[in-house]
Inverse folding.
């Protein structure tokens, strides 16, 4: 299940609060400060912010609103029904490896006190905290250890879900803990995922720092797009791999497909609608992609030996014959976690540069691949 989830993860608003404006609730800036993320809204007021998360998992049918307030802030009666969290927080528990880089980019990783499945964490900084006992193991994301969490009493738990199953979170909230859902992984725009660092900025009172970090990433990403436009060719691309007799590959509007388009690659399923993944037969994929120039993101494979052992028919693809297969799965952390799954959504600029280097090496002559590596 975990492998499938990781695989699908790769392939893959304003608050409606009716109230009269009063002097103490007049916003400093009435517009949503988030520009790319569709599932996150942050509205800044004098001494509190209204944060709305609208799509923490694909089947979510409700918005989750949080009031992040300074000490002694006066919260309007109309907002009292929402979860209130005093900021800046001093301790945090996160539940997805994609949350770890945001803490490190803001230099608040030392505020992390708990994480589920700590072996999946790849970052050297956070691994050191885990190994020295400063970050406690709290079970699995599907079965969090409530006793440990209640003992720890973190200021906030950043929840992560894939299907709306949240009994454990509800139980923790009923026992007084603060749960704030994070839906970064459901975003489809590459910069939309990275922009969720703004949420952590508000939690830690580091809004300006979070904004600066994100703007640097945004600028690098947009510059890379402009660089890719100078390419004189547009290589054809195959992606995904077979899992349980079906070939899963990203749909044309997905996060992964947008990277390939921005890198000026001709992804062969770019015209398909949807933001998730396609499930096709081997024969269907072979017919369309047998002569693809590159195969990028072949699941968990890290060598041609693994590839051909799993399915000898992979040898029929030109990309395999020409050794033009690139994977992100070979670069792992100390305990086996794939670095791409942890960091890529926070650093889309590096993902895009990798793809430009692979498809158009003449445009980035001195650049070394960060996430991807040619199969050995």
């Amino acid at each position: 299940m975990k492998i499938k989830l990781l695989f699908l993860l790769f392939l893959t608003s304003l608050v409606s609060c009716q109230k009269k404006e009063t002097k103490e609730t007049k916003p400093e800036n009435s517009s949503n400060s988030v520009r790319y993320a569709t599932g996150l809204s942050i509205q800044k007021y004098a001494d509190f912010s209204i944060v709305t998360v609208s799509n923490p998992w694909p089947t979510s049918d409700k918005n989750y609103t949080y009031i992040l307030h300074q000490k002694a802030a006066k919260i309007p009666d109309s907002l009292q029904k929402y979860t209130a969290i005093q900021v800046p927080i001093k301790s945090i528990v996160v539940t997805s490896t994609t949350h770890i880089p945001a803490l490190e980019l803001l230099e608040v990783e030392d505020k992390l006190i708990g994480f589920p499945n700590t072996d999946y964490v790849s970052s050297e900084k956070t691994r050191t905290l885990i190994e020295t006992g400063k970050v406690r193991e709290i079970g699995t994301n599907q079965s969090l250890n409530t006793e440990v969490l209640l003992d720890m009493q973190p200021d906030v738990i950043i929840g992560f879900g894939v299907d709306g199953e949240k009994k454990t979170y509800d139980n923790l909230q009923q026992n007084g803990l603060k749960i704030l859902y994070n839906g970064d992984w459901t975003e489809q725009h590459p910069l939309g995922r990275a922009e969720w660092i703004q949420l952590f900025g508000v939690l830690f009172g580091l809004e300006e720092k979070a904004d600066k970090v994100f703007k640097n990433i945004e600028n690098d990403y947009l510059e890379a797009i402009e660089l890719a436009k100078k390419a004189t060719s547009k290589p054809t691309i195959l992606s995904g791999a077979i899992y349980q007799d079906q070939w899963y590959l990203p749909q044309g509007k997905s996060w992964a497909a947008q990277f390939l388009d921005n890198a000026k690659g001709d992804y062969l399923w770019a015209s398909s609608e949807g933001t998730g993944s396609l499930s096709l037969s081997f024969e269907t994929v072979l017919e369309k992609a047998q002569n693809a120039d590159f195969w990028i993101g072949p699941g968990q494979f890290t060598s041609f030996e693994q590839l051909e052992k799993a399915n000898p028919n992979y040898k029929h693809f030109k990309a395999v014959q020409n050794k033009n297969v690139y994977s992100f799965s070979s670069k792992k952390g100390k305990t086996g976690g794939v670095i791409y799954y942890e960091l890529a959504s926070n650093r889309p600029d590096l993902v895009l540069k990798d793809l430009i280097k692979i498809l158009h090496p003449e445009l980035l002559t001195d650049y070394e691949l960060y996430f991807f590596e040619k199969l050995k």
